[in-house]
């Protein structure tokens, strides 16, 4: 009998513990149903609310976003092949340069503000100033100098996109550091609830997100317009060289200096 009791004693203890745990669990469940915990509904925040929660660095990020949009609009309207190398202007210059009519070519350039007109105007004005013979080397040297100036003029704006893409994440990081400092100050003051840290953490995350939203399109636009400008500058150099060859291959004024 004693041996039988020792065998079934662990089973009796386990059954008793199971019954006690079941009873306690049911009572806790009933209490939760009678007094349910208060639920916090998620609030939808507007863009203005997010801007306000982002802190003071959001003002600088907003300025960079406005500058980025402005420069992208400028580059999209100006850095275009038809704007910098108008087909109608190129045909008019081909006719004038083939006839070696310098005055007609300069007159055509005066009525246009494209890069091609600037290049040919400077080429004919500088290389022909005070000399009677236009040498191909002089024309190509002045054309290359003017093309470099035109490329630099537009790259100034394109490089601003690269600067904005680099500065925006740094401002976002600054906002992140500012928000975390605010959260640690709350912790040092004795705050212990999650809601006490929500403001600082929200500022840290919002500024980072908005900074990346500005930086990513700015970086993409930088590479797009940089490659586009390089391609157009290559076409501009080819067009200028073609016009110079047409001018040199003519008669009269286009004779080489050795022939003179």
In summary, what is this structure?
The protein is an all-alpha fold and 260 residues long. 80% of the residues lie in helices and 0% in strands. It has helices spanning 2-34, 47-53, 57-78, 81-84, 87-98, 102-110, 115-127, 136-188, 194-248.
Order of helices and strands: HHHHHHHHH
Mean pLDDT: 75
Low-confidence stretches: 2-7, 31-42, 251-260
Principal-axis shape:
rod-shaped
Number of helices: 9
Strand content: under 5%
Structural class: mainly alpha
Protein name: MotA/TolQ/ExbB proton channel family protein
Keywords: Cell membrane, Membrane, Protein transport, Signal, Transmembrane, Transmembrane helix, Transport
Family: Belongs to the exbB/tolQ family.
Domain MotA/TolQ/ExbB proton channel: 118-234
Fold blueprint:
Elements (H helix, E strand, L loop, with lengths): L1 H33 L12 H7 L3 H22 L2 H4 L2 H12 L3 H9 L4 H13 L8 H53 L5 H55 L12
Helix pairs in contact: 3-8, 3-9, 5-6, 5-9, 6-7, 7-8, 7-9, 8-9
InterPro entries: ExbB/TolQ_transport, MotA_ExbB_proton_chnl
Protein name: MotA/TolQ/ExbB proton channel family protein
Organism: Luteolibacter pohnpeiensis
Written description of the protein model:
This protein is mainly alpha-helical. The chain has nine helices and no strands. The protein has helices spanning 2-34, 47-53, 57-78, 81-84, 87-98, 102-110, 115-127, 136-188, 194-248. Residues 2-7, 31-42 and 251-260 have low confidence and may be disordered.
